[in-house]
């Protein structure tokens, strides 16, 4: 028996034979399963000491990136913040432009209403009877042969207007500063 066969029988295993009666041989370059296991388990002492004796080996993304969970969370937070800052300025511009557009649309609607009102007034002033009525009311014009009468009430005179203004300004009679001065003087 060859060396491998003896090792297998020592462990209590039978030697395997192929259909042609020869034992299976591995290719010269392929490692055995046990040597592969040894390689996977074996890692440098420094990395074992860094991780601690009881720590598990990192798995998945941590092994690929070589980062701990805390570092990955910090990198993720930085990426999220960078995206937020990148999107903040365009979003603010978009929202301010939307507000400005709605304000301009309201102003445009108001101006349309005013244009419609002014066009209606223009159409009314094209009527000669309307022009005559406006001239009589505003400018106090009269037609030839008519006698104008102007009635003035006492409130319409300049003295009446001054008295009314004084009464509104002084509900108690004198101004507040006059009342204050009169109390201080006595």
Notable traits:
elongated
Q: Radius of gyration over alpha carbons?
A: 52 Å
Overall 3D form: elongated
Average predicted local confidence, pLDDT: 75
Oligomer: single chain
The fraction of residues in strands falls at under 5%
Number of helices: 8
- Low-confidence sequence ranges: none
Order of helices and strands: HHHHHHHH
Tell me the number of strands: 0
Q: Describe the sheet with the most strands.
A: none
Distance between the termini: 140 Å
Q: Helical residue percent?
A: 55-70%
Global structural class: mainly alpha
Can you describe what's shown?
The protein has 186 residues and is an all-alpha fold. 65% of the residues lie in helices and 0% in strands. The chain has eight helices and no strands. It has helices at residues 3-10, 33-41, 45-51, 61-65, 69-125, 128-139, 158-169, 176-185. The termini are far apart. The relative contact order is 0.02. The model has no long low-confidence stretch (mean pLDDT 75).
């Amino acid at each position: 028996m060859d060396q491998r066969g003896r090792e297998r029988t020592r462990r209590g295993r039978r030697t395997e034979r192929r259909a042609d009666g020869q034992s299976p041989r591995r290719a010269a370059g392929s490692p055995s399963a046990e040597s592969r296991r040894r390689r996977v388990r074996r890692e440098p002492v420094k990395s074992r000491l860094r991780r601690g004796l009881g720590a598990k080996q990192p798995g998945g993304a941590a092994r690929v990136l070589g980062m701990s969970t805390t570092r990955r969370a910090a990198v993720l937070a930085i990426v999220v913040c960078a995206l937020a800052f990148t999107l903040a300025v365009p979003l603010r511009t978009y929202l301010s432009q939307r507000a400005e557009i709605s304000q301009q649309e309201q102003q445009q609607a108001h101006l349309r209403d005013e244009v419609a009102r002014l066009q209606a007034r223009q159409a009314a002033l094209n009527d000669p009877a309307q022009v005559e009525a406006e001239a009589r009311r505003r400018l106090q014009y009269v037609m030839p042969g008519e006698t104008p009468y102007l009635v003035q009430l006492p409130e319409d005179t300049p003295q009446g207007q001054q008295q009314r203004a004084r009464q509104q300004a002084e509900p108690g009679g004198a101004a507040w500063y006059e009342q204050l001065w009169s109390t201080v003087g006595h």
